[in-house]
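Lecture 7 notes: from sequence to structure.
We start with the chain below.
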Amino acid sequence: MKYDVVVVGAGIAGPIVARNVAKAGYSVLLIDKKPAIGSPKQCAEGISIKVFDKYDIPYDRRYINREIYGAKIYSPGGYELELRYNEVSGVILERKVFDKMLAYYAAKAGADVLARTEALDVIRKDGKIAGIKAKHEDEPVEIYAEIIVAADGVESTVARKAGINTYAPPHEFDSSYEYEMLIEGFDPDLIHLWFGNEVAPRGYVWVFPKDEDRANVGIGIASDHQQTAKYYLDKWLKENNIPMKKILEVNVGLVPVGGFVKELAKENVLVVGDAARQVNPMHGGGMAEAMEAGTIASKWIVKALEEENLSLLQNYTTEWWEKDGKRLERVLRVRRVTEKFTDEDLDLFIQILSGADAEKIAGGDYVEVIKALLTHPKVLMSRRRLSLLKELL
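Predicted structure tokens for the same chain:
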């Protein structure tokens, strides 16, 4: 098989790249090792409403479980911070359908799509990467391409075989555990987040409503913690008297929350999405970041093919770091500072922050918020708190 571009991985970033490049008239193959694209899910399934227009994705009710109007944050001491909007701010997806439909949109744009096709290695000819070795329906196959896109997740085989350094230490990953279950007593128009060192070390517990009485209930904690994510999630459910007798699905995952890949393009290979650690380090969400990276990557792939100049692919690295990388590094600084917070710190900050402040901090636009916090009497009274917040400036 011979294509202009082969995209390995049909999560979020891969289909965006495949669709955009195919729309420009080039031959594209999108492959995924799973028999059914989108399954199993490893995601809380929440995403901003803004992505649909921004990345030209249909607002299709087939993969939208519920519209969300904001969020509610709970501190260890029981203080609450609510962000509620008059209009829809986000949705809870059905990722099993959403991912498959993204692959469908790529196919409709002209890309070929093959499920149950696993990339095993790269093909080298005359010292250059010329394609990939894969296994389709358990049969070996060679796929040749001018450009290869590694969108094959956290443990990217393609990036590793191409010599791209994707190493990050264990502390830069979160371990997640999630039940899709029947649950009542929480406002289904909001997502709910609980923080605390005894609740979720370095992370949080979430309830993302999919129906009035059904939700994704999960947790993310530092992957190098001595206890498991499941231990803390089950503990939280028990302490909150939430019965575990109506569990519809169990999902487990590893989420990169740091260790962004520096070299996003090497020769004719590009790395995008989780494979490049393009995830928000604060909340662990990576769908919007994958869409952005896929959009930037596809732009430079098309230009490289148009001008028959593969060196233009290096501009993907430059543009991503300018547009998204610097912002995510600021968010990473927030994550590293919040790891040092005590439960008393978390109680205080949730009491004195507004919803808009919390949103800015999670998005990396926090300088003015931090400056304001530094003038608060309860911050001024603590040298430790002053020192921690000054680390962000």
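Points to note: The chain has twelve helices and 18 strands. The longest strand covers residues 139-150.
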